[in-house]
């Protein structure tokens, strides 16, 4: 399994970013995918999940601002992040939700105030 997250960067508060995660080595269309994040000095937390049928769940703290989606043809899962806040600064990772693979490098999102 290979998971390549991208799309992070430095953005001002209130800005937007779209993260992408390309997957290989799995039956992507049958796999529930998830985005996680780990802020400096904190534990990794689940941000959002999307089932193979497209049902989504987003953690309450970002529910109004973040959207998860997927493209089964491209084997890619996305995280659209709007109205970013400094508290969203973290390394963002994607992974399989039910049987996590090795954690990749993730993609760093830095939100400046």
Kindly list the characteristics that best describe this protein.
113 residues, six-stranded mixed beta sheet, globular
Report a brief summary of the structure.
The chain has 113 residues and is an all-beta fold.
Describe the structure.
It is a single chain. The protein is mostly beta strands. It is 0% helix and 50% strand. It is built from no helices and 10 strands. The protein has strands at residues 2-6, 9-12, 17-24, 33-38, 45-50, 56-58, 66-71, 76-81, 90-96, 107-112. The strands form 2 sheets. It has a 6-stranded mixed β-sheet, with no helix packed on it. A 4-stranded antiparallel β-sheet has the order 1-3-8-7, with no helix packed on it. Strand 7 and strand 8 form a beta hairpin. The mean pLDDT is 97.
Envelope shape? globular
Report the biggest beta sheet as strand number plus sense, adding barrel if it closes.
6 strands, mixed
**Annotation field: number of helices:** 0
Secondary-structure element order, N to C? EEEEEEEEEE
Approximate helicity band: under 10%
Low-pLDDT parts are: none
Give average pLDDT, whole number: 97
**In percent, how much strand structure appears in the residues?**
over 45%
- Terminal CA distance: 37 Å
The whole-angstrom Rg is 13 Å
Order of strands, main sheet, comes to 2-10-9-4-5-6
The helix-and-strand class reads mainly beta
How many individual β-strands? 10
